[in-house]
């Protein structure tokens, strides 16, 4: 069990803006290292420069802009002269320690060759990846085998072949590499793989939609939020399906306001029901903050949802995340959360947040097991690679990365021989059971 000292520790210092109209906060002037993520910042009143470091190598971020990933918007002071930078309130806190100057490698004029790029990618993975064992990769053997085929990388074509082998072996949702034309990504759910090619998956998604609207909700449902959310009632059971944690508007500019309006209407309509089903069995992830915002609609009091820390700094104090009761419309009755191997990333952090609530039961099959934020790292030639680099733990201290969350009750939602009907039939059987 996570200690209450950690979960309910002393209040953190307030957040301040990293940059104002006058420039960068002068209290941040200097050089800073985030060991857990391989970030070095060089901050002056008029600029912020980001570097990426790994095992003695350093690359100045070539993407342009001071903060290309939007990670360093606010900050707070920490003990020992450290500071934490973050995208915003209740978001990931990146812990930086002061350093006396830029590392020598960050000042090096050495050219970036294909061989050096490969060394940087593999050093980053070796330093920050949470666990090769959990994704079934024997890292030393993988490196030995690649070097047997590519003793020396003399061109970007050879580099691409070597990186393709690395990322094909990792085969997990948050780790991918792109050269601007081709992308190697993995971690697809077994349920999706069984469907076949892209045409078959598109047909299946259409059947999923029609099964909810026509069968589960009998033509009386709502398909809203940029077609990412379904909701409605079937008798005295409420049904809410959320396919992504975000993307509820075309441009994303008013996602939270749109989500709030949808949930207000849906939960008001669910008043007086025996139970509500929240279906994330086809949720493809998104933003953890959105996941917690939805979970807050089912909370009666604050609960620790999960903790996280960088994998590269095992002694770091984990950051605690909570699900807190929303001030808007809430549902306090029994809630059943549906999961599957498609449920991934922020869909899984939603499940962690909901499992912390006493009125929630999870039903389905194990989730995918990809919790860490997707950490982007650029190369000087315009390529980019990403990786998992964090350890998430539930309130019991369990680490579900690579294994997924096992539901309280098993229901193979996509196990029917007819994949086009399986989901709707499983949901209808559960509704019948809950209506008794």
Précis, in short:
With 436 residues, the protein is α+β, with helices and mostly antiparallel strands. The chain is built from 10 helices and 24 strands.
Q: Could you tell me the number of beta strands?
A: 24
CATH homologous superfamily of the largest domain - what is it? 2-enoyl-CoA Hydratase, Chain A, domain 1
Catalogue the unreliable spans. Answer: 1-10
- Helical content, roughly? 25-40%
CATH level 1 name of the largest domain = Alpha Beta
Task: Using the CA coordinates, give the radius of gyration.
Answer: 23 Å
Give the structural class: alpha+beta
What's the shape? Answer: globular
Quickly give the CATH architecture of the largest domain. Alpha-Beta Complex
What is the arithmetic mean of pLDDT? Answer: 95
Number of helices: 10
Strand content: 15-25%
CATH topology tier name of the largest domain:
2-enoyl-CoA Hydratase, Chain A, domain 1
Q: Structurally, how many domains make up the residues? A: 3
Strand order of the largest sheet: 1-8-9-10-4-5-6-7
Give the N-to-C terminal Cα separation: 36 Å
Give the key terms.
436 residues, alpha+beta, 2-enoyl-CoA Hydratase, Chain A, domain 1, 3 domains, 8-stranded antiparallel β-sheet, 7-stranded mixed β-sheet, 10 helices, globular, disordered N terminus
Detailed description of the structure:
With 436 residues, the protein is an alpha+beta fold. It folds into 3 domains: 4-107, no CATH class; 114-184, no CATH class; 190-373 and 391-435, 2-enoyl-CoA Hydratase, Chain A, domain 1 (Alpha-Beta Complex). The chain is built from 10 helices and 24 strands. Strands 1-8-9-10-4-5-6-7 form an 8-stranded antiparallel sheet. α2 (114-128) packs parallel to α4, α6 (198-216) packs parallel to α10 (422-435) and α8 (288-295) packs parallel to α9. The longest helix is centred in the middle third of the chain and has 19 residues, at 198-216. The protein is globular and about 70 Å long.
